[in-house]
Amino acid sequence: MTARHHLPEELRWRAIGRREAGQIQTEVGRWINLSPSVVHRLSQQFLTTNSASRRFSQGRPTATTSADDRYLSLCARRNRTATPTQLRSSLDAATGWLVSTSIVRRRLHEGDLYARQPAICVPLASRHRRERLRWAHQHVIWTPDQWRIVVLFTDESRFSLQSDSRCYLIWREPGTRYHPSNIRERDAYGEGSVCVWVVSFWVDAQTSMSFHVEL
């Protein structure tokens, strides 16, 4: 692809002068070593604007203003699970300006907000946290023999009876995955489950195991 060259200001006016003197576009184009179509556009510019100077463009205007961008960022931070379609509707209701969802995503990316899966934690009450911490403090100094003789080692697998795709995202800044505002509590078995429970214990230096199925 050939490079695009712009006519110098002086050459533009000299070409206009030759056209005003009666020369045809082909002759003027041959003189400045350009196609007649360029001479034609230059002549049309002179007829409409009375100027032959090069017109500078600032590029395509943006679809949103800086105030719109701040509004989108604020809405995404207040409701981190909002989809681009919902944010677009909020902007339309506030400003009357409807933009595409791709513009919404680009503006949020420019504000350092990205759609990511949230960190999931088990919903625990204050009592649960206190009991777990107390148990850990009581057993932190136990020896391996104490664990082997006293403790029953168990394991379980639980299968939820409800569908949970977990396919939802939140808007968050990079490096803030475990910030409290970006963590979602989720009870995966709130509507019923099937639990397979295994317990193992020591009997005469041998391990015994039992299985239990709970609905």
UniProtKB/TrEMBL annotation:
Cellular localisation: Nucleus
Listed GO MF terms: DNA binding
Span of domain Transposase Tc1-like: 69-140
Entry's Gene Ontology BP terms: DNA integration; DNA transposition
SUPFAM superfamilies referenced in this protein's UniProt entry, alphabetically: Homeodomain-like
GO cellular component terms given for this protein: nucleus
Gene3D superfamilies recorded: Ribonuclease H-like superfamily/Ribonuclease H
InterPro entries xrefs: Homeodomain-like_sf, RNaseH_sf, Transposase_Tc1-like
Predominant location category: nucleus
Protein name (database record): Transposase Tc1-like domain-containing protein
Species: Araneus ventricosus
